[in-house]
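User: quick one, fold this
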Amino acid sequence: AKLRMEMRSELKRLHKEIEATFVYVTHDQLEAMTLATKICLMKDGTLQQYAPPLAIYDDPKNLFVGDFIGNPSMNFIESKVSNIDAQSCLLKNEKLEFLFNFKTKTKEITEGQEVIVGIRPEDITISEDSTNKCTVYSTLPSGMETIVKVNLNGNLFTLVTFGRVDFKLDTEIGVAFNSNNYHIFSKDTGEKLATGSLKLLS
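Assistant:
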């Protein structure tokens, strides 16, 4: 692992110094994210997205891209749309209800449509003041960061917290959804429909 990291660093430096175009083919998303100036992401011979690494990470064009890029992977919640208007909609499943406020909409969203909500692990934060209580399902501390899996109303979410922290299993903690970069994908086509903020209602 150390050698691979050093090689990535040297390749990136070499690319800068010789000012040539590199085409690097890899199945390793970490190599693609750290080395590329632009990523061409393919699936079954079809182009899914072509953009700079952070643009792909922050603005995935479809469910496949959102799932493939990122480690830990994006959290996905199946939901149904209701009470939609120009600014927001409700997203419900059997165990959770969110208010979703639109930042951008890329496709039409309809009442009753089945969708999948995408949430990056770092966009769920631990908050002592939050009323959104959940229990710790598992923890993977690594020193610099800790990957925490929590049970929120019967749904498992993975989050990342930075620093030297750990939590006892089955203890209660609060979580907050403070980002404005959550995504709605079509369950049928996988296309991204909207980006925005979330508020957990129940």
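User: anything notable?
Assistant: The first strand starts at residue 39 and ends at 43.
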